C-alpha cells in the first residue's frame, strides 16, 4: 500500500549495501534487544491489542456521537497530534460529519483557551482527556477548566458520563481523578510511548467519535505489520527509507522536509515531525524534520528550497487517489485565460504541479527527493502509513545508535518553568 522511490535522491551509496546493519537493527526491534526496548509494544500491536477494550471504545464513541456537537480532546504532543492528523487526513478539513473535534490542552495561550471555552459554551459537549503521565501541565490546566465547565453545565453525574479519560492503566493523577469521578477510561499501554500511541485508544477514541472506521485503520496496521516484517531491503520500503535518510545525512543533508500536496495532510506532517524529531534528535545527532504543504508553500518556502543553502532533502508524501475531485469548467469568454484547463481534473493539475516541482528542485536545484506514495487518504491507508513511519523511525535511529523511544531533553523546559511558576 506504500511505494518508495529513491531514484531522485542522488544517493552515492547503494541502499542494499546496508543489509547487514539493517538486519541487526531489525533484530533489536523485533527481539527487544535494542535501546529503549521497553517501548516496542507497537511492533506487534496489530496482533496483541485488547479486542474487548476496542469494542468498548467503539460503543462509547457511538453513544457520545449521538449526544454531542463537539468533542473536546484535551492532550498534547503524542497525546494529540496523531488523532488530529488522522481526523484531518481522513475526514478532510471541512467534512460535514458531526461532532466537531476540537483540540485543547495543548497550549498555554490564554486567548486560545478563552476562545474555545466561549465557543463550546452553548453547544452539546463531550470531553476526552488524554495523558499518560496524568501530570502534563498544559493538559492538566485545561482539564481543570473543562471539568468545572462540564459539571456546571450538566451536573456531576451527566458530566461524568460525557468525560472519557485515556491514561495509564494503574497510575497517575488522571487515573485517580477518573476512578473517583467514575469516568469511562481507556488504557495507554505501558510499552507504547506517546508519539507511537495513535494506534491505541489515544488516537482511536477521538477518531471513532469523529466517525472514522477504526476497524479499517487496524486492518491497515495489520497489513503493514505483515508486509514490513521481512527485513530484506529488496522488499521493505520502510527500511529502504530508513537507510536513504542515513545516506543523505552522510552526504551533508541535515534537514528533511516532508512535503505533501494535500491540505488535509498538513497535520500528518506535524505528527511525523514529532515522531522523527523526538525520536532522533538527541546526543547531538539527527536530522531536523521540517515540512511543507505544496503548492501552497511553494509560494513561501519554495524559493529557499530551489536556491537557498543546500542543507536539505525533500521527502514527498504523495497520494495516488484523492478523496474528492473537481472537474475544471469551461468559460465562454475565457477572460482569465484558463480555458486550457477546461474539462481537466483538478487532481491532475495538482499532480502536474508536483511533477514540475520535482523536476525544478531535483534537476535545476540539485535538491535530493525521496518519494513515498500512498494509495489514498482512507483510514486503512492511515493505519498502514503509521506503521511504515514507526518502523522506518526505529530502524533509522538504531542505525545512529540512538534510543528512538525516550525524550530526556523535553524535561529541561519543564524544570525551568516549574521553578518560575513556583511549583513545589
Ligand atoms: O511523545 C511523548 O512522549 C510526548 O509528546 C508526550 O506524549 C506528551 O508530552 C504528553 O504526555 P502525557 O501523555 O504524559 O500527558
TrEMBL record:
**Where does the protein end up?**
Cytoplasm
- Could you say which EC number(s) this protein's record lists? 5.3.1.9
| One Pfam match | PGI
Q: Which InterPro entries match?
A: G6P_Isomerase, Phosphoglucose_isomerase_CS, SIS_dom_sf, SIS_PGI_1, SIS_PGI_2
Lineage: superkingdom: Bacteria
The GO molecular function terms of this record are: carbohydrate derivative binding; glucose-6-phosphate isomerase activity; monosaccharide binding
Record-stated family: Belongs to the GPI family.
Say what the protein does.
Catalyzes the reversible isomerization of glucose-6-phosphate to fructose-6-phosphate.
- Name listed for the protein in its UniProt record: Glucose-6-phosphate isomerase
Amino acid at each position: 500500500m506504500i511505494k518508495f522511490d529513491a531514484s531522485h535522491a542522488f544517493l552515492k551509496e547503494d541502499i542494499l549495501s546496508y543489509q547487514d546493519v539493517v538486519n541487526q537493527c531489525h533484530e533489536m526491534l523485533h527481539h527487544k534487544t535494542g535501546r529503549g526496548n521497553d517501548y516496542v509494544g507497537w511492533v506487534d500491536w496489530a496482533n496483541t491489542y485488547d479486542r474487548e477494550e476496542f469494542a468498548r471504545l467503539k460503543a462509547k464513541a457511538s453513544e457520545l456521537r449521538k449526544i454531542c456537537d463537539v468533542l473536546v480532546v484535551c492532550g498534547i504532543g503524542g497525546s494529540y497530534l496523531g488523532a488530529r492528523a488522522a481526523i484531518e487526513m481522513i475526514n478532510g478539513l471541512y467534512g460535514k460529519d458531526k461532532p466537531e473535534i476540537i483540540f485543547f490542552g495543548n497550549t498555554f495561550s490564554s486567548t486560545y483557551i478563552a476562545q474555545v471555552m466561549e465557543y463550546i459554551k452553548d453547544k452539546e459537549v463531550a470531553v476526552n482527556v488524554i495523558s499518560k503521565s496524568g501530570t502534563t501541565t498544559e493538559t492538566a490546566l485545561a482539564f481543570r477548566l473543562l471539568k468545572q465547565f462540564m459539571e456546571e453545565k450538566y451536573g456531576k453525574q451527566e458530566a461524568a458520563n460525557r468525560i472519557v479519560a485515556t491514561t495509564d492503566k494503574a497510575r497517575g493523577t488522571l487515573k485517580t481523578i477518573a476512578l473517583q469521578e467514575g469516568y469511562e477510561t481507556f488504557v495507554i499501554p505501558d510499552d507504547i510511548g506517546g508519539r507511537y500511541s495513535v494506534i491505541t485508544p489515544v488516537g482511536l477514541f477521538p477518531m471513532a467519535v469523529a466517525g472514522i472506521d477504526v476497524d479499517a485503520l487496524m486492518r491497515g496496521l495489520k497489513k503493514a505489520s505483515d508486509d514490513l516484517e521481512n527485513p530484506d531491503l529488496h522488499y521493505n520500503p520502510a527500511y529502504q527509507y530508513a537507510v536513504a535518510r542515513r545516506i543523505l545525512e552522510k552526504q551533508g543533508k541535515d534537514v528533511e522536509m516532508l512535503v505533501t500536496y494535500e491540505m488535509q495532510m498538513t497535520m500528518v506532517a506535524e505528527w511525523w515531525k514529532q515522531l522523527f524529531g523526538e525520536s532522533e534528535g538527541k546526543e547531538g545527532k539527527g536530522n531536523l524534520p521540517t515540512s511543507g504543504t505544496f503548492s501552497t508553500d511553494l509560494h513561501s518556502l519554495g524559493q529557499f528550497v530551489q536556491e537557498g543553502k543546500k542543507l536539505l532533502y525533500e521527502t514527498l508524501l504523495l497520494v495516488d487517489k484523492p478523496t474528492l475531485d473537481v472537474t475544471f469548467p469551461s468559460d465562454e469568454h475565457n477572460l482569465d485565460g484558463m480555458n486550457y484547463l477546461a474539462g481537466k481534473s483538478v487532481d491532475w493539475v495538482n499532480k502536474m504541479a508536483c511533477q514540475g516541482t520535482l523536476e525544478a528542485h531535483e534537476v535545476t536545484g540539485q535538491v535530493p527527493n525521496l518519494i513515498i506514495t500512498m494509495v489514498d487518504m482512507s483510514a486503512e491507508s492511515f493505519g498502514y502509513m503509521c506503521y511504515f513511519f514507526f518502523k522506518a523511525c526505529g530502524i533509522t535511529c538504531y542505525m545512529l545508535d540512538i534510543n528512538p523511544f525516550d525524550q530526556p531533553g523535553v524535561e529541561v523546559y519543564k524544570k525551568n518553568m516549574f521553578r518560575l511558576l513556583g511549583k513545589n
